[in-house]
Amino acid sequence: MSGAWLYLCSQYFFSYWLLSPLETHSKHIDIYQESSFDNSAIFVFACYFYDADNMPDVDQWNDCSLRRLTHASLMYKASKQSIILTGGDFNEYSDASYSLAARDFLVRMGVDENDILVVDAGTNSSEEVQALKNQQASFSHYHVITSATHAYRVDTLFARYNFSSYCVHPVDHYNVNEFNFDPSLPSIANLERTRAAFYEYAAIINMYFQD
C-alpha cells in the first residue's frame, strides 16, 4: 500500500490535481496593463534567505524568494511605487533579517532605496500581515506578491486583518505545463510538487485552527 501511495504521489497528474485549486485561486495580472491606483504600494511576502556570504548573491535565495523579489523589481520599473518588505529572523542558521537582506538585494537590482519600506518583523504569513497592518505608512491599495500556492491563504489573512483594497500577484507556479493523465516512471520533481501541495493544505488547516 505504501508503495502504491508513493507511486501516486510521484505522478504528474496527481500533483497537478492537488496544486490546481491552489494555483488557480488568483489569476495572473499583467503588470504592464494593470489598473492604476492612487497611493498604492507593492507588498512582498518573505520566503527564505540563506545568508551565505561565500556564495553568489542569487544562490543565497531560494526559488520563491528570487521570483517574488524579481517580480517586485519588474513591477517597480513598470509603475514606480513604494515596495514594502516584511520578514524578520526566521533562519535557524543565522540571525540575519530577511527584510533587510531583501532590501539590499532590490537596491542592487536597481530599486531606489528611498522607495523601499522595511518592516523587520514576521516569522510566518500571519505575523507578516499583522506587521503590515501595524506599519505607520498609510496606503490605499496593496499589490501583494506571493507564490501561487499561497494565494488562498493570503486572501484569508488579508480579510482577517480587514484590508479593503488589494490584489494578489501570484508567481512561482508549479503547474506551468498543460495537464496530462499519462502514467510515467516515478519522478522526484513530481514528489516535490505533491509535497508543496500537501504543505499548503496543512498550512491552510492550521490557519483556521488558529482563529
Spell out the helices and strands N to C: HHEHEHEHEHEH
The total domain count is 1
Query: Radius of gyration over alpha carbons?
Result: 18 Å
Query: What's the CATH class, please?
Result: Alpha Beta
- CATH architecture group name: 3-Layer(aba) Sandwich
Class inferred from helices and paired strands: alpha/beta
The helical percent reads 40-55%
General shape: globular
Per the CATH scheme, the topology name is Rossmann fold
Largest sheet: 5 strands, parallel
CATH superfamily: HUPs
Return residue spans where pLDDT drops below 50 for at least 5 consecutive residues. none
How far is the first residue's CA from the last residue's CA?
36 Å
Residue-averaged pLDDT: 89
**Order of the strands making up the biggest sheet:** 3-2-1-4-5
SS field, number of helical segments: 7
Pfam families: DUF218
Protein name: YdcF family protein
Domain DUF218: 64-202
InterPro entries: Cell_Envelope_Assoc (IPR051599), DUF218 (IPR003848)
Describe the protein in words.
Helices cover 42% and strands 13% of the residues. 36% of the residues are buried. α6 links the parallel β4 (141-147) and β5 (166-171). The chain is built from 7 helices and 5 strands. The radius of gyration is 18 Å and the shape is globular. The model has no long low-confidence stretch (mean pLDDT 89). With 211 residues, it is α/β, with parallel strands linked by helices. The chain has helices at residues 2-9, 12-23, 63-78, 98-108, 125-134, 151-160, 188-209; strands at 40-44, 82-86, 116-119, 141-147, 166-171. The two termini are 36 Å apart. The longest helix is centred in the C-terminal third of the chain and has 22 residues, at 188-209. Strands 3-2-1-4-5 form a 5-stranded parallel β-sheet, with helices on both faces. It has a single domain (28-178), classed as Rossmann fold.
